[in-house]
Specification:
Elements lengths: L1 H7 L1 H31 L6 E8 L3 E9 L2 E2 L3 E7 L13 E2 L5 E3 L16 E2 L4 E4 L6 H4 L4 E2 L8 E2 L11 E8 L4 E10 L1
Parallel strand pairs: 1-12
Antiparallel strand pairs: 1-2, 2-8, 3-7, 4-5, 4-11, 6-8, 9-10, 11-12
Length: 189
């Protein structure tokens, strides 16, 4: 009788082992599926930038590290800070035209016909907006106030003597508006 009882215990042990193996396989499949879904989503690039603006020399933007950005596949916005005429508002945010930007070797990011001349903005690169392109009318037309059509405008741009000592923000975003980087830039003479 003891021989018969020992054989009957094998069947439940095998059953439990098969259930355990099946559970592990299902967990592995679910984990692999969930992991591939997470990796298939585009990650927002990250960027470490520094910028300086001088009313005499223009703007310099330094790429100090992070992801390489393809020129034309991101946007740069200028937003006045609260200490610049107390006008920090989405109404005064201006997208910077990348045709105004050159690299550190005086090559414009885009040629006159809109063709891309500089393919990327990578760690160690320098982007420059010449002082002539930093006028309010060219760089930030939303900061010109006209009380009525054809009136002389009031300049609330970053190139006025009243703006010295104030700051503005440069925001780098993806084309769909995800923030890549933000830096506060002091205005110097």
């Amino acid at each position: 009788m003891s021989h018969y009882d020992a054989e009957s215990a094998v069947s439940p042990v095998v059953g439990v082992m098969l259930m355990l193996v099946a559970t592990i396989i299902v967990a592995a499949v679910v984990s692999a599926f969930a992991g591939s879904m997470a990796n298939s989503q585009d990650m927002t690039p990250q960027l470490n930038i520094q910028a300086e603006y001088s009313q005499l020399d223009g703007m310099k933007i330094y790429h100090n590290g992070g992801d390489t950005l393809t020129v034309g596949e991101f946007k740069i916005f200028l937003t006045p800070s609260k200490n610049l005429y107390s006008i920090e508002s989405d109404a005064y945010v201006t997208e910077i035209d990348q045709k105004l930007i050159s690299n550190g070797q005086s090559v414009m990011w885009y040629d006159d016909n809109g063709g891309r001349e500089v393919p990327r903005f990578a760690a160690g690169d320098l982007a420059i907006i010449d002082v002539t392109n930093c006028s309010t009318e060219i760089l930030t037309p939303s900061l010109m106030y006209y009380p009525y059509p054809h009136a002389t405008g009031t300049n609330y741009g970053i190139n006025t003597t009243e703006a010295v000592g104030a700051t503005f923000f440069l925001d780098f975003t993806t084309m769909d508006g995800k923030k890549i980087a933000r830096v506060e830039v002091p205005i110097t003479p």
